[in-house]
Structures are given as structure tokens and as C-alpha cells.
Specification:
CATH architecture of the largest domain: 2-Layer Sandwich
Distance between the termini: 19 Å
Structural class: alpha+beta
CATH class of the largest domain: Alpha Beta
Number of strands: 10
Radius of gyration: 20 Å
Helix content: 25-40%
Length: 323
């Protein structure tokens, strides 16, 4: 096999996110449930005999040294292979949304090259590389919806109740992106949420818990830039918080629930539990959130939660991608 095309790199959201503490080294201790969505970037990967690793952006220009290239180089170095690859990327997931797009792309590269380069490494060996690339990459490599703890490295696969898989999820991303470091560094962030119990989540997965990152975003709506301090970053945080709060409020008013997807600026709502979403209802919610906003680009989409990663079969011995 020399090529794998039409490879999905799916988005993920946090169904809840609790910040339970902070380590001496500054890393926050978390509890969350990560779930995969049927919204994805698409990658096409071909092997090269000359050892070179190249990326080709098919629609949106990515940073010169993104996670995909870093993932391929790391696997090449650690495995000692003399093969290279051409990575073609079609981006669909918005940047800075908290959907894990870059991490998912990197995981898809690891999964594909593990097969194309004939390495056949087991999952735990790929995960050891993935953790060097970013906190979310091991989750995508594992390929299962999961209960996540620690600083993101403790991943326990879970089977979601059927209602979660059957209920559409509406996503709305404002033009802004909330910087992860800034929101985790906010004095408004609650850092002592009680530890959650998996059984309690499974009993009420769509109503369980909270997103501790959501409060700083909502509070920043009311803070004028000078009160946050000088500099463009603090001014941007106040603006970002207002737009995220606008999206949260509009989605909550329309669907009765809304949360941030993670540390990025996108928010999500459960829609018409157990039934297909009404297109006009979704459009109305998106329109309410963007009413009066004339700058930037708002992105809205209705998704479903996936039972597992579309490329999980690459770790299980099958040859052809299943989207």
C-alpha cells in the first residue's frame, strides 16, 4: 500500500469540563468527556521513497510548521524508516474553535503513516508519540469517546448512551478565538470543582456538569479593556468574551442549553432530542447570535456524535478507509 486517501480527521467537543485543581508546575487538573463528531478535515497521504515529508494545502493555507508535519517527522525519526510522505489537507474545521482540529489532523497522520510505512505499531506506542505533540492528540489516536482526567493524559474509553448518539448537536463559532493560555490563566476561572463520578455522567450525559472555562468568557463580556490592563491581548479578551457570551445566550434561548466546546470560542447545544433538527430553527438560532454583527465570519453547523473514530480500523488491521 502506497497511498491512503479521503481520511477523516474528526472534530471533538467536551460534553463538560471541570477544573479540579492545579499542579505545582502550573498545569491544570481536569475532568471531562471528549466525544467525536461527524464534522472533519480530510487528508490524502502518499508515500515517498526519498524520505522527504511535504504538506500540500488544498484550500486554506496552514502554518509552515504545523502539527501534521511535526507528527510525520516524529514518527519517521522514532521508527527509523527511510520513507517519506506527501500530506494533502482539505480543512473544514474552523481554527481556534475548541474542536481539536490540528490535534485530530496530527493523529490521522500518525494512524495513516503507521500503516503506509509498514510499522504496525500498537496503539499504546503511537500514544507515547502523540503525547509529545499535544494534550488532545492521544485521545484522537485512541479513537474512542472517553472520560478524560489528569492533564488530559488519563483516557478511559466509554460507551455513550444511545440518546447521545441519536441527538443532533448544533455548533456556532464566532469570528474570535479564545487563547487557551489566557483563559486558563484568568483569575475568574474556577479551579476547585468537585471531582465528578462516571456513573453520574452516564445517568444524565446531556445535562451533567458544567464547563468551568465558560464563566471567564461570560464575565469578560462585562469588563472594559482598560480594567483588564494594557495591550492588545487583554483588549481582545474582552471583545472575545462578549462574542462568545452572545453565542452562548442565543443558543441557550433557542435550544434551552449551551456550552463552550472546550477552550476555544465555539459553543454547542443539544437540538430536538431524538429527532432530526428543524433547519429553520437552527438557522434562526444562528441568525440570533449573529444579529447586529457585521464584522468577521460566523460558522454554524449541525453534527452528530460518532460512536468511534472513522479510522479506528487502521489500528485493527483493515485496509480501506471507512468514512
Amino acid at each position: 500500500m502506497t497511498s491512503l486517501h479521503d481520511l477523516a480527521a474528526p472534530a471533538k467537543i467536551n460534553l463538560f469540563l471541570h477544573v479540579t485543581g492545579r499542579r505545582a508546575d502550573g498545569y491544570h487538573l481536569l475532568q471531562s468527556v471528549f466525544v467525536l463528531l461527524d464534522w472533519h478535515d480530510t487528508l490524502h497521504i502518499d508515500t515517498r521513497d526519498d524520505g522527504q515529508i511535504r504538506r500540500h494545502d488544498l484550500n486554506i493555507a496552514l502554518p509552515a510548521d504545523d502539527l501534521c508535519l511535526r507528527a510525520a517527522r516524529l514518527l519517521q525519526t522514532e521508527s527509523g524508516t527511510r520513507l517519506g510522505c506527501d500530506i494533502h489537507i482539505e480543512k473544514a474545521l474552523p481554527w481556534g474553535a475548541g474542536l481539536g482540529g490540528g490535534s485530530s489532523d496530527a493523529a490521522t497522520v500518525l494512524l495513516a503513516l503507521n500503516r503506509l510505512w509498514g510499522l504496525d505499531w500498537p496503539t499504546h506506542r503511537l500514544e507515547a508519540l502523540a503525547v509529545k505533540l499535544g494534550a488532545d492528540v492521544p485521545f484522537f489516536v485512541r479513537g474512542r469517546n472517553a472520560w478524560v482526567e489528569g492533564i488530559g493524559e488519563q483516557i478511559t474509553p466509554i460507551e455513550l448512551p444511545p440518546a447521545v448518539l441519536a441527538t443532533p448537536v448544533a455548533l456556532l463559532k464566532p469570528p474570535v478565538a479564545i487563547p487557551t493560555a489566557a483563559i486558563f490563566g484568568s483569575p475568574l476561572l474556577k479551579r476547585d470543582t468537585e471531582h465528578a463520578i462516571l456513573a453520574a455522567f452516564l445517568a444524565a450525559p446531556m445535562r451533567f456538569g458544567r464547563n468551568d472555562l465558560q464563566e471567564p468568557a461570560e464575565a469578560w463580556r462585562e469588563v472594559e479593556p482598560p480594567a483588564l490592563g494594557s495591550g492588545s491581548l487583554t483588549q481582545a479578551l474582552a471583545s472575545d468574551g462578549r462574542q462568545v457570551s452572545q453565542a452562548l445566550g442565543a443558543m441557550r434561548n433557542r435550544f434551552g442549553n449551551s456550552r463552550m466546546t472546550g477552550s476555544g470560542s465555539a459553543v454547542f447545544s443539544w437540538v430536538n432530542q431524538g429527532e432530526p433538527p428543524a433547519p429553520d430553527e437552527v438557522r434562526q438560532a444562528f441568525g440570533a447570535a449573529t444579529h447586529g454583527v457585521h464584522e468577521g465570519h460566523w460558522v454554524g453547523r449541525v453534527c452528530r456524535v460518532l460512536p468511534c473514530h472513522p479510522l479506528l480500523h487502521l489500528l485493527e488491521g483493515e485496509n480501506s478507509p471507512q468514512l
